[in-house]
Predict the structure.
Amino acid sequence: MSVFSCLETAPRDPIMGMTEAYMADPAPDKVNLGVGVYLDETGKIPLMMCVQAVEQDLAATRRPHGYLPMSGMAGYNTVVQELVFGPSSSAVITGRVATLQAVAGTGALRVGAGLLALASPDSKVLLSDPSWENHDLVFTRAGFTTGTYRYYDAATRSVDIEGMLDDLRAADPGTIVVMHASCHNPTGCDLTHDEWDRVTEVVQERELVPFIDMAYQGLSLSVIQDMYPMTALGEAGVNFLVANSFSKNFGLYGERVGAIHFATSDSAEATRVLSQAKIVVRSLYSNPPTQGAAIVSTILSSRELRGIWEKELGEMRDRIKKMRAVFRSGLENAGVTQDLSYITSQAGLFSYSGLTVPQMQRLRNEFHIYGLDSGRLCVAGLNAFNMDRVIEAVSEIMKSE
Ligand code: LMR
């Protein structure tokens, strides 16, 4: 009798599984708008100039491949903390933030969840409805029970802020609330700064524990504006966590670069939390990898390279906006009569199309265009070569509703 015999075949991952299906499709004109990856106008993941410059220097330097500390590269943690919280953050200046390099955004979430499982094992975790498909898995596998708070209003295609606040007001003290800093995944609908202020008031009043997922800093409005949730929560003195990733905004997907930040009460508490988080890391993967963190910290530490990075990031942001505009007008010109303004008002990589599961299946099976079953389309995968095909297919499906 095998120890594994009780295991059934797991279902396909809703996002990564879609890439597997895309790869297996022999159609020559297939289009992948499933996974959240930014592609350039030629349909490739860009190798940013700032990244290339650092990689050349790193390749020219012979370095032994030693271990990093469990918390990662110290210089990296310092510059990343400043990027995520801002240079004048009082939380950072007073030393109440503990930061550890992490294995991209997912790894950061998992380390944060592991630490919370020690600190607050009976707390419930609330996710936005809907949220990134992997959030639920990360928190349930760390031992938590998850639920949802109202977020997206399908009728208005915008954030149901009153519903969200009511649900937060009804949550028990200590509830962990996972929120997206910007470019909400999958809806592309973000809170305004005023709404973040209102959320901050409620989490403070109800003693909730915000856990901010920031996978897209700089891809909504700007590097500075996208960090507003950290400013609002930090200045209010709230205890919270931030998981940040450099997959999308540095194009370093496979390098797995990110960080987990714990905004604690004071520097003594930050020291204790850091020591416990290191044990969580040790039990999961011991210590993080080197290359991606070396690239990011070199860029963020150099005024010149950081300038190049922000410029390239701005170009990515503009290209996404342009693709949204072309996609929307293409559908309108093709005779789709429903209000499509959501395509240009949503922010970030995704358009939450409202297409149903059968419609998304049709898009895949008949037209070889891959999006998620939730209706999410990665508009950052559109370009001049695939745009017409996508418009033709999506308009046909929308018109036959
Ligand atoms: C996505 O949402 O498609 C990306 O964040 C990739 C992932 O890991 O799911």
Summary: Residues 15, 35-36, 132, 134, 185, 215 surround (2S)-2-hydroxybutanedioic acid (CB under 6 Å). The mean pLDDT is 97. The longest helix spans residues 303-333. Residues 321 and 344 are 7 Å apart (CA to CA).
